[in-house]
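Render this sequence as a predicted structure.
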Amino acid sequence: KKIQTFKRIGALKSETEFLSLGEVMQNLEIPISPYVSSELKNSYNLLIFSQETGKRIGIIIEINNPENLKTQMKTWESTLLDDFKNFYPIQAQGQAASKNFLDDNYKNVIIRYKNLPYSTLTLNYTILGNFLVIGTSKELIYSTIDRILMK
């Protein structure tokens, strides 16, 4: 069993065409405000991250304006957890362990996160360079940051 590994999920529309970011979000039933949407490019990676406690889902999206997006993401936080409910296993339903999003700092990168009922599940996001990273565990987001900073 490989731990700390990423696998890209290729969401195909046809044999030769990938789904657009909008189509992926629509299929996952994730509503995105037009203000957030306008800052997202169509370049994304949907991934599965394997960790000791199971598999987690994440998405990395190329963005236009990091400062504008930071503001829009703070506004989205009130419904973000519910909007991303399809990123979580069925058993993760229940009250979030933290009421609001909190700040974490890893390698001078600010991460916004909300703890879920299980200690190994969180909803977190960060804006790093020209990327928005949304993940479902602290390990996933830390590993993603490590990889982006290596480039």
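Summary. The CA atoms of residues 55 and 142 lie 15 Å apart. The mean pLDDT is 89.
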